[in-house]
Amino acid sequence: MSYAIHPIRLAMPLRLGTVNAYLVRSEAGWALIDSGAPNARAALLRALEAAGCRADELRLIALTHGDFDHTGCAAFLRARSGAPIAMHPADAAMLERGDMFAGRAQRNPLMGWLAPRLFGFGRAQRAAPDHLLAEGDDLTPLGLPARVLHLPGHSRGSIGLLTPGGDLFCGDLLANTDGPKLNDLLDDADAARASVERLRELGAARVYPGHGEPFELGDL
């Protein structure tokens, strides 16, 4: 199945940089991978329209993990479009409860209290996912020609989405803000390194990270 990828770069609050979402168009329709922080609603809608996608044409909102800069507009967009939210169950409580440490082994009570306030992630941004994803799930019937890879490391419920053409949407496992590398923020560094080795074995080619420009996996 042919598809086209439309990268969307969205500003994070408090001048914390930018985060990527990816709009994918295929024969099955439009799907969005990640949704930006809550402050990015208007910019996200403009980006969808600029790519030719009306909100009511969206078929799926796939979340690579539960951090607020990736899930912040998911509930809003689901209400606007009717598109279901899909994510791994190990990170679902992050979206449901507004607790960014719910999907992590390492906890920080102070940041757990502060983070939703800094990101503007209140009750209106919380939601229960419609689909809980597992390793090997084929998302084509939901509108995205890709299969799910469970890639723990950044969080326990982090996933990658691998297309038949070798394009990988990796969330925050990898970043490319100052060169391709493992994300600096890891919950389990050993698990992250093991996830990267899996990607090499599975034939991932071009990587679309949560932060920074796309790159070839061989450049990592």
How are the SSEs placed, and which strands pair?
Layout: E1 3-11, E2 18-26, E3 29-33, H1 41-51, E4 58-62, H2 68-71, H3 74-81, E5 85-87, H4 89-97, H5 109-119, E6 131-132, E7 147-150, E8 159-162, E9 167-171, E10 174-175, E11 181-182, H6 189-202, E12 206-209, E13 215-216
Parallel strand pairs: 3-4, 4-5, 5-6, 9-12
Antiparallel strand pairs: 1-2, 2-3, 7-8, 8-9, 10-11, 12-13
Overall description:
- The chain has 220 residues and is α/β, with parallel strands linked by helices.
- Helix content is 26%, strand content 25%.
- The protein has six helices and 13 strands.
- Strands 1-2-3-4-5-6 form a six-stranded mixed β-sheet.
- Strand 10 and strand 11 form a beta hairpin.
- The protein is globular.
- The two termini are 28 Å apart.
- The model has no long low-confidence stretch (mean pLDDT 95).
**Cross-sheet strand order for the largest sheet:** 1-2-3-4-5-6
User: Which shape, going by the Cα principal axes?
Assistant: globular
Global structural class: alpha/beta
**What proportion of the residues is helical, as a percent range?**
25-40%
Largest sheet at a glance?
6 strands, mixed
- The overall average pLDDT, rounded, is 95
- Terminal CA distance: 28 Å
Low-confidence stretches: none
The counted number of beta strands is 13
- Total of helices: 6
What is the succession of H and E elements? EEEHEHHEHHEEEEEEHEE
What percent strand? 25-35%
Radius of gyration: 16 Å
